[in-house]
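Hey,
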Amino acid sequence: MDPSALAKMYVDAVKNNTISASILTKLPELVSCDWTKVELVGSVFYISERTKITYDGVLAKYRGGLYYIKKKVFEVLQQHDRRFRVKLPVITVVS
């Protein structure tokens, strides 16, 4: 499935600062885009019980979709753009 279509499918997945683990693991990763159009949702930390993959980063909305941004990418953005230096709400991952 097209990553942008997948992102749009889950755009409303964060409710009351929570997201389902099954949805988080399906979110496309945002690596390169027009960063001026990104809306930050919150920070997330989760280790998948099944695959042991660590999700440590930020959830963001971009062009009507929900994306995952790795912590390393987000830290670089923080160095270059003030808009990414804000304190974000913590998104709780539920099973």
